[in-house]
Amino acid sequence: xxxxxxxxxxxxxxxxxxxxxxxxxxxxxxxxxxxxxxxxxxxxxxxxxxxxxxxxxxxxxxxxxxxxxxxxxxxxxxxxxxxxxxxxxxxxxxxxxxxxxxxxxxxxxxxxxxxxxxxxxxxxxxxxxxxxxxxxxxxxxxxxxxxxxxxxxxxxxxxxxxxxxxxxxxxxxxxxxxxxxxxxxxxxxxxxxxxxxxxxxxxxxxxxxxxxxxxxxxxxxxxxxxxxxxxxxxxxxxxxxxxxxxxxxxxxxxxxxxxxxxxxxxxxxxxxxxxxxxxxxxxxxxxxxxxxx
Length: 293
Known about the structure:
By secondary structure, the chain is mostly helical. It has helices spanning 2-10, 15-39, 58-75, 81-99, 102-107, 118-135, 147-153, 155-178, 182-188, 192-200, 208-213, 219-247, and strands spanning 50-51, 54-55. β1 (50-51) and β2 form a beta hairpin. The radius of gyration is 23 Å and the shape is globular.
């Protein structure tokens, strides 16, 4: 195991990325444990941080740590490996704190424990997936080595093939994202085959592509809706279950935010849960998707 780690991580220069990855995961898990205990009013060492009546969200600490880690990594001398690793880990801690409240940044309101708060977990999943691919040595489109092509076909031909392939893959990525296939589009930047697959398949019915090109009632639109309801709904439910298993349920406000805390249960407001809607896979409360694919 030690030889494998040294060969695949240390010798390839991915040690800072590895520490970023570990620090990111550990911080996210510990943060979610902490906020769930605070939400449950459990006796716990950590409490909400306040400055007077102002609640200080942990995204603020995340931004500070990302700034310190980023500057430290840029300013670190080329031979100071320990400092580079430490800055990467510090940046990972900050990134986890920021993405854990990504929904707050996106909506500019505190939606942490509402359904829209699941966007934060989606953002964390995307960051983990992309970082994991980089850690495995899989390069995104546009970062391939041109030495082989240049030696075999000549520099001009090799660059031409490279640029053509790059442009084609980026165009396909845009098409896939417009079709509402977020995961396919992002992972496809590392595995181009997925871009071709996603580009030829039907778009999600709530996507911009479907609104532009699928006439309501047409065969393609009805087929897209059928696929969304019959095939994607179980996957979305499984994803929501996994999100809530890791991050807690996003269907009720924490006790400190509920109106009339000592009132009867019938008077306490309830935030709609995904299972309350007729079709959680097709649209969210405002007609958009309920989450990232």
